[in-house]
Every structure is written in C-alpha cells, then in structure tokens.
Amino acid sequence: MDDPRRRVPRTDALLGDPRLAEAADRLGRARVKAAVQEQQGAVRAGAPAPDDWAAAVLAALPRTASSLRPVLNATGVVLHTNLGRAPLGPAAVEAVAAAAGYTDVEFDLTTGARARRGRGTLAALLRAVPDAEDALVVNNGAAALVLATTALAAGREVVVSRGEMVEIGDGFRLPDLIASTGARLREVGTTNRTHLRDYDDGVDEDTGCVLKVHPSNFRVEGFTSSVEVDALAGLGVPVVVDVGSGLLAPDPLLPDEPDVASALRAGADLVTCSGDKLLGGPQAGLVLGRRGTVERLRRHPLARALRVDKTTLAALEATLEGPLTPAWRALRTSSDELRRRAESLAAALGGGEVVPSAGAVGGGGAPGVELPGWAVALPEVVAPRLRAGTPPVVARVEGGRCLVDLRCIEPADDAVLAGAVRAAVEG
Ligand SMILES: *Cc1c(COP(=O)(O)O)cnc(C)c1O
Predict the structure, then answer these.
(1) Cα of 58 to ligand 1 centre, how many Å?
(2) Which site from 113, 115, 156, 166 is most exposed, i.e. has the minimal number of CB atoms within 10 Å?
(3) What is the tens place of the pLDDT at every residue in 202-217?
(4) What is the DSSP string of 70-107?
C-alpha cells in the first residue's frame, strides 16, 4: 500500500499551492480544479506520480482562459483560414487590449451625448480610401454582401454573370447567400464569357443591383471575357463589386488582385471586402462607396444584426493606421531571407535539407500566385509531433515530406520554432 505511485495529494491541498492559486485567479478555479483531478486520475490509473504535482498541473493548463491555442504557422500560407487568416500586428493587439474595457465607442466625451459608433475607424477607412464617400463595417465579407443585396434588391433581382457564381470555401456559395436575402438571382452570360449586352438584356425595372464578384479562388483561362466595372456603371442601376480580399489600392506584388479604390474610381456604387485577408486586420466586412447608398445599408434593420464590437473596430483602425502588418511582412519576405533563416534552422537541428518552397497568399485569394521561398525538409512523421508540441507548429506536408517554411514565422520567433522542431525531430 506504500507504492509511491499511489500517493495522490488531496484536491484542496493542491489547490492551496500558491502557483495553482495564482492560476485559479487568472484562469478560473473550475478549470484548474479539472486539471488537478485529471492529474490525480492519471496517477490512480497507473501513470507515474510527478515529483512536483503543482508544476505538472500548471504545465497541462492553457496559457490563457481561452482554449484557443496560439500556433506557429510554418505552412508558408499567409492567410491560412484554418489558422485564423491574418495575424494581428502589435499595434492592433495593443488597441484591442485598450478597447476591451469601457470605451467611448458610441459616446462623445465632450458633449456627454451618444455618438456615431466606430467613427474613428470609419474616418481611418476614408483616409485610406479617399475615393469612398462613406463606409460601413460589418461582421465579415459575407455579411457585407448580404447587407448590400438585401438593402438594394430584396424582393427584386440581382444581376450576376454566370462566370462569377462562385463557392468561396467551406460550402459558402454566392447564389445560396443571395437567395437567403429574399433577392432573386438573374444570371447572365456563360461560365467563360459574359458581355455588356448580356447585362443590358438582364437589367430591367425589376433590377435591384448588378453584382460583380471577384472569383478569388480560381482562374478561368482561354476563351474568356468579362465586363469591367466602368462599363457596368453605365447600365443605370446600382453596381456592387465584391473584391473579396480587401486590397485597398493596387499592389505590384499582386497585379491581378482587384482593389477597392480602382473599383470605386471605375464607378462602382458599393465595394465590399473582408478585413482579415489582404487588409491584414481582424475578421470584418467593409462596405465603401457612395454616401446615399452606404446610408441605405446603414439604416437597414439588418445592419444592427451584422455590426461589429469595439475590439474589432479598434483592431481595424490600428491596422489601417499602423505599421506594416504581419501578413504583409510575410508576403514581402524575400527568398534570400527565407533561405538564410531556413539554413540557420537546419544548422540548429544539425541536419535537414533546405529546399525550394513556394509560399501562397491563402484565404482563397490569388490562386495563381506563388511566393518563391525556402523550407527545411524533414521526414513526414515529424509533422504530427510538431502539432503536438509546445507551442504547436503547423508545417506543410507535401510529397511525403514535412516542410517547415519560415515565411509566416515572425523572425523574433525563429528560436522558439527551432526549439519546437528540435524536440519533435528528437521524438
Ligand atoms: C472571402 C470572400 C468572401 C467572404 O468573405 P468572409 O470575410 O470570409 O465572409 C466573399 N467574396 C469573396 C470574393 C471572397 O474572396
């Protein structure tokens, strides 16, 4: 009966340990107690008793009160949707923390009266896109589309090219989304070719708006034709352009990616996009465009159901005004830098082949664009061990190998990554 493995301390005694008491203050007593009981149960079931029980329980606890775990993205895919798309930069993180308590999000501190919600963020958006007369922020890109089509075309028709009837990802299909708003879809043209006369034939007194969608996740090549925004703007009905990724102005790195400013300058009434793709900010949907049209959306009852919270507004403003975002730093990281860092990682591991590795924009955007770079190639069996490590590292499994690509790793995290990879390689 004196088997030391069976000596299990009492729950209260463990919870009284100052380290676990401090953890309970941070994470909640129930979570710490559950971790204590799990450790006790494991030892009773035959696992070796830890030398330091409190330390073992602490090691099993999450770092924060959320079960979401920070991971190192070693996939080379910058806007990885399963990993939360764009990572917020330090300026946005600081703004989120500062806005998390009571804030003047909808309050004027001078007059003491109610003020327009998120006015600072809207002002930053209009500074970033001077071609827009007004702007609105909603929950995500899909919400922006829903609000635009509902406010402009519920009970009426939305005219869309057959070449733009896209599925964005995870079963999100544009035709289904529009049908859910009570607007009827009027498809014009064909999959590969749609002409201005097709739109012209489709537009009548029942038209609520013409919608142009950027088919962001595929490319049609060959005998193709589509109608540019400036031609659609002459049809005499509101033109809504979903550019998808949130590129605010043209960028030479992604020459085929449509941007908000160009669509507005070409005559779009409204442009919608996401906040957490190429904008590099929080999950949000942006609507920019003509004053009267944006106002119609703002006044629609649905706008209230799609609005964002103060932390999103704070992160978005900081992203718009702040320094280069982590997503853009990753997109712009040179092949030479990646090779140098991959070689350092391989040296730290005492092995591992440094191989060419193409990064991707991700988030369903820029499907044809390959970002040249380098990665450390390891045996495929390392990949699950990397995911199980602390911190978890998500690498790319390709051609029977595990590729560790440093593009989306902050250079300051290279040493942490090296430690995690070494642990995984050593098993
Ligand atoms: C991503 C995307 C959407 C959906 O945006 P979410 O922010 O994911 O809701 C809509 N349209 C296009 C063209 C997109 O690329």
Answers:
(1) 40
(2) 113
(3) 999 999 999 999 987 7
(4) --EEESSEEE-GGGTSSPPPHHHHHHHHHHSSS--TTB
